[in-house]
Design a protein that fits this description.
Rossmann fold; globular; single chain; two-stranded parallel sheet; 10 helices; alpha/beta
């Protein structure tokens, strides 16, 4: 299988690229080679500007265009090619807040939900076998965990807001294996990409502190998050417990369903 990864220079993309022979890697910042994807068997779409940043009107437009317009262009190319499988991306923000949700639950309301739905709708215009992953927080050698480690190592870590909000996470090693599982078994449809056992923000905080042997007594109040991130603070404060129902039904065996085991393997 010849694999092309659009947005392949980010955290997830670089980990995925290591698992395939000579993949085509297209950076989110440079789409000059985008037409080359038509010569590949599998196209993985990971393109999109980072969500964790203060949302100005301009940045909201950039979040939208970097996902929806890019996916539209990718689908246009794939629909006139011999590509065998298209794997696109979405996110937990699709669902309502709060929720305990699997793939059969309806979308929520607000910017993140609308962004995810529009993103998925563009991907579903593809006339090739298509899979869409709704991502939880990916833990690995980059991304969210990398940003958390320094304050926690300094003893400055603590729960966010009330700490009762659920934290739907997945280990990067499972992410990589799930992509291979989906490709090898030619599985299509929309699937949640999260570990079976979500934890509360407080439990995550305590577990990370335990693994690092550090105290976690300095909370991040809601009002401080809202001052720093504005509307984007909902990324940290949303209470969404996302379940990977379809992956479990398909027989995927998670290597890391326990948070402490995952964190100890990563740190």
């Amino acid at each position: 299988m010849k694999v092309a990864i659009v947005g392949g220079t980010g955290f997830v993309g670089t980990n995925l690229a290591k698992q395939f022979d000579n993949p085509l890697i297209i950076s989110s910042n440079n789409f000059s080679d985008i037409n080359k994807i038509k010569n590949y068997d599998v196209v993985i779409n990971l393109a999109g500007k980072p969500i964790v940043k203060r949302w100005s009107k301009t940045y909201k437009k950039l979040l939208y265009s970097s996902r929806i317009e890019t996916t539209k262009e990718i689908v246009k190319i794939i629909n006139n090619s011999n590509v065998k499988h298209f794997i696109s991306t979405s996110a937990i923000g699709y669902y309502s807040n709060p929720c305990v949700c699997d793939e059969f639950d309806k979308k929520g309301q607000g910017f993140l939900s609308d962004l995810a739905q529009d993103w998925e709708n563009e991907a579903l215009k593809c006339n090739k076998p298509t899979t869409i992953f709704r991502f939880g927080v990916v833990l690995g050698d980059g991304g969210a965990l990398k940003k958390m480690l320094l304050p926690f190592k300094l003893g400055l870590g603590g729960k966010v807001g009330k700490g009762s909000q659920m934290f739907s996470w997945i280990d990067i090693k499972d992410v990589v294996d799930i992509y291979k599982f989906i490709i090898d078994n030619k599985i299509t449809g929309i699937l949640n990409l999260s570990a079976p056992e979500s934890v509360s923000n407080t439990e995550f905080t305590k577990t990370l502190g335990k693994v690092l042997n550090r105290m976690t007594i300095l909370p991040m109040p809601e009002f401080v998050l809202k001052i720093i991130f504005g509307e984007a603070s909902e990324v940290f404060l949303s209470n969404q417990d996302m379940k990977p129902k379809k992956l479990l039904e398909l027989g995927y065996n998670f290597k890391y369903s326990n948070l402490e085991k995952s964190l100890r393997s990563l740190i």
